[in-house]
Amino acid sequence: MIASLLRLIALRPFLGMAILGVPVVALIAIGLITVFAVKAFMALLVPALVVLALIWFFRRMARA
């Protein structure tokens, strides 16, 4: 199978790039979307946790 893929790339480079390039481009796109989603999640989650921690801290200090 590897030999046939190599022969395909050697004989028909554009077809080989189309067959092998689509999964690579899809993997790159999925990776970029994942990175963006994690960064957006952290950009929303971290400030919210900081605000909650500050509220908790000031309430605790007010009780003491």
| Global outline | rod-shaped
- Number of DSSP strand runs: 0
Q: Termini, distance in Å? A: 73 Å
**How helix-rich are the residues, as a percent range?**
over 70%
Task: Give the strand content.
Answer: under 5%
Give the mean pLDDT: 87
Order of helices and strands: HH
Quaternary organisation of the protein chains? single chain
Number of separate helices: 2
Low-confidence stretches: none
| Main sheet properties | none
C-alpha Rg, in Å?
Answer: 25 Å
Question: Class by helix and strand content?
Answer: mainly alpha
Task: Spell out the key features of this protein.
64 residues; mainly alpha; rod-shaped
What does this structure look like?
By secondary structure, this protein is mainly alpha-helical. The protein is 95% helix and 0% strand. It has helices at 2-11, 13-63. α1 crosses α2. It is rod-shaped, with a radius of gyration of 25 Å.
Brief summary of the model shown:
The chain has 64 residues and is mainly alpha-helical. It has two helices and no strands. The protein has helices at residues 2-11, 13-63.
Q: How are the elements arranged and paired?
A:
Layout: H1 2-11, H2 13-63
Helix pairs in contact: 1-2
